[in-house]
Design brief:
- By secondary structure, the chain is mainly α.
- The protein contains 8 helices and no strands.
- The N terminus is likely disordered.
- It is found in: Membrane.
């Protein structure tokens, strides 16, 4: 069993480390400015998404999809805000990076892009690990495979400094897969929901 635990430990750390390194090379290709804007967009997106997810959930419920599971709506709102802000920042970064490449600082821009690119994707993994470790459904299974990991505590620590997820406050602690699947299977647009309600009232 000790050897099996060591294999899990090696696979987790080596896999995460290799992915971060490879994506750091991608950061070298993109350049510092593009990676910097992407990182700012990621952090800013998480910051605003964590504070505006409730408003976004109400907007989605009223205008796009109606469901009874508010935690799931908040999660959708969080993802939507994060994607919008991150996309806008990435577009701006691409524009400024092209301007930088036309100057005499192209290699310097790429060198710092490697460092920042690796850091950005390490942060992404940190956010994913932090989110998963706060969901009871996933936490118990996850910790069985990473209890000897070197990177896991650092990932969780970094992720916790950026976003503070309290499963009790958003109702995830007692959520289970069946409840989520039921809500996803019963997605209705607001207009459809109102039609169903009026038909029920007429039949009464």
């Amino acid at each position: 069993m000790e050897n099996f635990s060591m294999i899990n430990f090696n696979y987790f750390d080596v896999t995460i480390g290799a992915i971060v390194l490879i994506l750091g090379i991608k950061g070298f290709m993109n350049g510092f400015l593009k990676e910097a804007f992407g990182l700012v967009g990621l952090i800013g997106g998480v910051y605003f998404a964590s504070r505006l997810s409730g408003d976004a959930a109400q907007f989605i419920d009223k205008n796009l999809l109606h469901m009874d599971n508010m935690p799931l709506l908040k999660l959708l709102g969080f993802i939507a805000i994060l994607v919008i802000i991150w996309s806008l920042a990435t577009i701006l970064g691409s524009v400024f990076s092209k301007l930088m490449s036309n100057s005499g600082f192209g290699f310097l821009n790429r060198s710092f892009g490697f460092i920042l690119g690796g850091g950005k994707y390490f942060l992404i993994f940190a956010l994913i690990v932090t989110a998963l470790s706060n969901v009871t459904l996933i936490k118990d299974n996850l910790e069985k495979h990473v209890h000897d990991s070197i990177l896991y505590p650092y990932l969780k620590m970094v992720g916790s400094t950026v976003i503070h997820l309290d499963p009790k406050s958003i109702g995830l602690e007692n959520s289970n897969t069946v409840d989520v699947l039921k809500d996803v299977a019963n997605l209705k647009k607001p207009a459809e929901s109102q039609t169903d309600t009026s038909e029920t009232n007429i039949s009464k």
